[in-house]
Amino acid sequence: MDDKKKVQDISRRRFLRNIGVLGGAAALASCGANVTADDAEGRKSKRGTGEMTYRTNPNTGDTVSILGYGCMRLPTKKVDGDDVLDQETINELIDHALEHGVNYFDTSPAYCRGKSEEAVGIALSRHPRDSYYIATKLSNFGPDTWPRERSIQMFENSLKYLQTDYIDYLLLHAIGMGGMEAFNGRYIDNGILDYLVEQKRNGRIRNLGFSYHGDVAVFNHLLEMMDRGEIHWDFVQIQLNYIDWEHANEGNTDAVYLYGELQKRGIPAVIMEPLLGGRLAKVSKPVTKKMKERRPDDSVASWAFRYAGSPEGVLTVLSGMTYMDHLEDNLATYSPLEVLSEEEHDFLQRMAVEILLNDTIPCTDCKYCMPCPYGVNIPGIFAHYNKCINDDNVPRSSTDPHYAEARRAFLFGYDQSVPRLRQADRCIACGECLKECPQLIPIPERMAQISAYATQLRDNTL
Fold first, then answer.
1. Spatial CA neighbour of 167 closest among 97, 100, 109
2. Contact between residue 457 and residue 411 where contact means Cβ atoms under 8 Å apart
3. pLDDT tens sequence across 157-176
């Protein structure tokens, strides 16, 4: 039996042990969460009171909010017909987050068409530097950024745009995409990993880690580097949610394995995609009904956030909070965090299977596939298709009882959310998007399927 299988076989018990179900409140307190005796008895009554839960980074002693602010999807406004970042709204959101205990902000040179770092820097620089932690990435994806001087310039630009002398949490961005060849080209052959280690020694980086997507062999290789004493990873960012715990799609790795490997080495985990790009905030009506029956006052999204934050080795959970209501709901969920019970964990695993049976597309709306050279709005098409599946508006046959209503909802919503010249039928299967997708979705194949389905609905030939 290989190591991954061994970890999966004990996945349920490990998850429950790590969230304190098998060890009580003391286990949670030991990892730095702000748990008191009163909290243990009455957390539900205190939910959303502003008492943010924190975790302690064992490497630096940083006290980090369990809710981290992901800055990949910042609010925009129209200026001369173009979408530009709305700095005033960004400032308001970040001010509110800081005021209510959020102190970890995650960005990248690749986010928001290259404008995220600058916007985040403007917002954060209005506050004392010791009141927040900045996480950013060396996002040298394209081979044109692999030369040493280009990658170094990217790092220097991050410091400039973020208006800081040091980065609290610096990540090698999305290792695993492109396999070992890409990893070596981006960080080893050009000496950039050695350069980043030197910057850490000089105090310009406080914590050095990586985020993972794709080829698990690269993930394993980086941990083996640490095992051999070649480097120390202070933290690692992984995708974890109640679907990906045991049911990750073939383009990624089950989180039970990733988290287990980090736990073995005492490496804190930063969690991305707790909502799978929003999919777990808008689940099917039957799943929503079951969640509301259990916790009527809680949002669907709060279930996913509680799941992602419950394991004790999790340092922070990133959420891309574009709107104030997103931020308010997440603050309520994590102020303080009510860890999952054993029964709730099992319930969510049943819901994961039910969600997967609905055949939604595992798009996280990261937009790495964009812009499409032929103008196709890839994430917009997937978002509409997934919404229709969750709303039960994807008829399988003209004999379905609600065929006419569902057909009308699918086609009207499609034309409203995606302009005709950007719909799936414009895809020519050039494959440019395939190498960019961290979920390894067969995008041209999916586009062909959705295009054919929409044509059948329009022609009334389903």
1. 109
2. yes
3. 999 999 999 999 999 999 99
